[in-house]
């Protein structure tokens, strides 16, 4: 899928070097087709890294995608320059009059806080409520998944005794769900979080479907029964070295942190990590775009 992104966005150069099909505004206007409009609410601190990771996965289908990058106006970011935000990002107030085919809500390293104590929680609630009528399908990742499950369905998160960090094996629930088409019965995906949701709470909720879980990492993939909301508790978008960078960062802070599980070859942090979840991540995002965005969105939004 050619991704239509601003010519100056740093991710564009990185993706072109990886031979990911991207195009800028000038070329996009020459194509007489109806592109998908996807808004990404980026809550991660290092926004440029997350942009690249998500755009890489969205560039793997034969349709054109227009991307709108969004950040919470009620939060002061300390790790992304205001120049970058002003040049490439919108605020909710600037886009709330629009309709979008799909939306992605990223994770955020704030699991230790109760949802209501997050400074931009009221704004996030407004965005999630707006998405019910203005977005065809919303994909939630990690903390974004926990926030969505809590707001829409009342599913509480709970603190883990130690951080869940590593690349874990997951199992598919035996359901004929389009989102799961082509996925292996068992697959790997990274996790990086301090909180979790109870599997039993998902299974017992009348409006939710548990699609995948890990014996060690817990709930992984959840979908609302009306297929409007999809929740991923892990980080399939992560680069091979992301968990390594997080681990070294936490060690440098003197935190009592465990080495990411099943990640470093030979459990030796001196060894280069191997990305074992690439194909799973590509297929999962392609299934979401195809079956829950492209196939479901109206050609003309009323």
UniProtKB/TrEMBL annotation:
<dbReference type="GO" id="GO:0008899">
    <property type="term" value="F:homoserine O-succinyltransferase activity"/>
</dbReference>
<comment type="function">
    <text>Transfers an acetyl group from acetyl-CoA to L-homoserine, forming acetyl-L-homoserine.</text>
</comment>
<keyword id="KW-0963">Cytoplasm</keyword>
<feature type="binding site">
    <location>
        <position position="192"/>
    </location>
    <ligand>
        <name>substrate</name>
    </ligand>
</feature>
<keyword id="KW-0486">Methionine biosynthesis</keyword>
<keyword id="KW-0028">Amino-acid biosynthesis</keyword>
<feature type="site" description="Important for acyl-CoA specificity">
    <location>
        <position position="111"/>
    </location>
</feature>
<dbReference type="InterPro" id="IPR005697">
    <property type="entry name" value="HST_MetA"/>
</dbReference>
<feature type="active site" description="Proton acceptor">
    <location>
        <position position="235"/>
    </location>
</feature>
<feature type="active site" description="Acyl-thioester intermediate">
    <location>
        <position position="142"/>
    </location>
</feature>
<protein>
    <recommendedName>
        <fullName>Homoserine O-acetyltransferase</fullName>
        <ecNumber>2.3.1.31</ecNumber>
    </recommendedName>
</protein>
<keyword id="KW-0808">Transferase</keyword>
<dbReference type="InterPro" id="IPR033752">
    <property type="entry name" value="MetA_family"/>
</dbReference>
<feature type="binding site">
    <location>
        <position position="163"/>
    </location>
    <ligand>
        <name>substrate</name>
    </ligand>
</feature>
<feature type="binding site">
    <location>
        <position position="249"/>
    </location>
    <ligand>
        <name>substrate</name>
    </ligand>
</feature>
<comment type="similarity">
    <text>Belongs to the MetA family.</text>
</comment>
<feature type="active site">
    <location>
        <position position="237"/>
    </location>
</feature>
<dbReference type="Pfam" id="PF04204">
    <property type="entry name" value="HTS"/>
</dbReference>
<dbReference type="InterPro" id="IPR029062">
    <property type="entry name" value="Class_I_gatase-like"/>
</dbReference>
<feature type="site" description="Important for substrate specificity">
    <location>
        <position position="192"/>
    </location>
</feature>
<keyword id="KW-0012">Acyltransferase</keyword>
<comment type="pathway">
    <text>Amino-acid biosynthesis; L-methionine biosynthesis via de novo pathway; O-acetyl-L-homoserine from L-homoserine: step 1/1.</text>
</comment>
């Amino acid at each position: 899928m050619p991704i239509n992104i601003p010519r100056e966005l740093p991710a564009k150069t990185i993706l072109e070097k990886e031979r990911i099909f991207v195009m800028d505004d000038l070329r996009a206007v020459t194509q007489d087709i109806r592109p998908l409009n996807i808004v990404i609410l980026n809550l991660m601190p290092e926004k440029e890294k997350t942009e690249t990771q998500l755009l890489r996965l969205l560039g793997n289908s034969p349709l054109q995608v227009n991307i709108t990058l969004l950040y919470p106006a009620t939060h002061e970011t300390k790790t992304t320059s205001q120049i970058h935000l002003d040049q490439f990002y919108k605020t909710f107030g600037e886009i709330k009059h629009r309709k979008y085919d799909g939306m992605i809500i990223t994770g955020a390293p704030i699991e230790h806080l109760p949802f209501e104590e997050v400074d931009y929680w009221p704004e996030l609630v407004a965005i999630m409520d707006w998405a019910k009528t203005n977005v065809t399908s919303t994909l939630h990742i990690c903390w974004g998944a926990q926030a969505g499950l809590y707001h829409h369905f009342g599913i509480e998160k709970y603190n883990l005794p130690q951080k869940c960090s590593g690349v874990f094996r997951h199992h598919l629930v035996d359901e004929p769900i389009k989102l799961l088409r082509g996925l292996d019965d068992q697959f790997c995906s990274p996790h990086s979080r301090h909180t979790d949701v109870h599997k039993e709470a998902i299974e017992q909720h009348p409006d939710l479907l548990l699609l995948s879980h890990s014996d060690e990492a817990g709930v992984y993939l959840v979908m609302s029964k009306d297929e409007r909301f999809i929740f991923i508790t892990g980080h399939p978008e992560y680069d091979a070295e992301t968990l390594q960078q997080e681990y070294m960062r936490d060690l440098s802070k003197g935190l009592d942190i465990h080495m990411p599980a099943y990640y470093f070859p030979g459990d030796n942090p001196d060894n280069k990590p191997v990305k074992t979840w690439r194909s799973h991540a590509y297929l999962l995002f392609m299934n979401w775009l195809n079956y829950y965005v492209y196939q479901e969105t109206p050609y003309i939004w009323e």
